[in-house]
Amino acid sequence: MKNEKLKMTRSCSRRIYPAIIRNLKVAATFLPFYLSTSLAAVTPTAEFLRINPSAFSSAIANASVAYDGKIDSVYSNPSGLSTIKSPQLFTGYTAYIQDIKLAGMSYAQPFGKNVFGCSVIYLGLNSMDATDDLGQPSGAASANNFSFSFSWARNIKDNFGLGASVKQVHQKYDDVSSDGICVDAGTISKFGNCSIGISLQNFGPEIDSQKLPSTIHAGAVYVFPKKPLKFSAEIEKPIYSDLKFKTGAEYEVAPKIYCRGGYEYLREAGAFSGISAGLGFKTVWQDSYMEFDAGKPVKKIGVHLDYAFSYFGDLGNIHKVSMGFEF
User: Measured between alpha carbons, how far is 179 from 164 in angstroms, rounded to an integer?
Assistant: First the structure.
């Protein structure tokens, strides 16, 4: 029975992946989908786990493994939750070409010295034309993938944080589905104006005899003294492909208004692809209907809105928006 299911999964994947290769040429996170045929043969399953739904992270080319204090850091390094002091909520949405939908949502809640969180990512592909091994049409195909994770983080010292996530993974291609589990783990250390982050992502047992997209990230963020400027750099090593380098920067052009940019070299897409840029805006919502009660201040909710644009040459462009709330 297991062998029969495996054959069905691989058969369905062969029908759908060529269509994905043709239609998904839009993002670095989908890179294995449009690699050469020889590399595609070793592409792991559940590639959508590599996608970061955060517009902030995308704007700096996903060089975000050393950032902390924001709820969306859970998608790059779970230890980034360790410095969160109040409840936070995140939502993100990306509209790719060919009716590809990507959405993410996460929530974090401090409990004493610990921070707990949960998050979800959904990737949906509407019905599209699929092909067989010979490139011939084989009917319509669709896919729906999602993962749900539970996270924990703690600041062990003022300058050192730990974090981990456990993910439940579900994939469905046409009528064939598969499930699995994997973990993320990471640390962030601070040295003056510099933070260093290390993260292990998507490590776990195989799903239907196919490996997960396990990846190691290491990077740093430097905050320039007396200037509203941050610079980040990161190296990424997927277990199935070459080392990658990413860099990004954020500049506060006006109070609570941020301009961001980044670059990731993508050999398959050309030297000038992999450029990203974005804007960020922060504000505070104040409930003017609430009166002071026993000396307590009016309730305020922090809000941040982020936008990112990523350029991938002939492979296409991505527009991403996300919003966060701090209660």
Answer: 20
DSSP three-state, residue 50: helix
DSSP string, 179-225: EEEEEEEEEEEEETTEEEEEEEEEE---BTTB----EEEEEEEEEPT
107: closest CA among 79, 149, 163?
149
Q: Is there a contact between 82 and 115 (Cβ–Cβ < 8 Å)?
A: yes
Torsion-angle region of 151 (φ positive above 0: left; ψ -120 to 50: alpha; else: beta): beta
Structure token digits, residue 277: 């840029």
Find out whether 292 and 300 touch, Cβ atoms under 8 Å: no
- The residues near 181 (Cβ < 8 Å, ≥ 6 apart) are 166, 167, 168, 169, 204, 205
Q: How far apart are CA 290 and CA 246, in angstroms?
A: 46
Q: Which of 24, 25, 26, 20 is nearest to 317 (CA)?
A: 26
The residue to which tokens 């939750």 are assigned:
81
Q: Report which secondary-structure segment, H or E, holds 303.
A: strand 300-311
pLDDT in tens, 213-246: 999 999 999 999 988 999 999 999 998 888 889 9
Average pLDDT, integer, range 181-193: 95
Query: Domains of the chain: which residue ranges?
Result: 2-247
CA angle 118, 119, 124 (to 5 degrees): 155
- CB neighbourhood size of 292 (10 A): 8
pLDDT digits (tens, 9 = 90+) for 98-122: 667 889 999 999 999 999 999 999 9
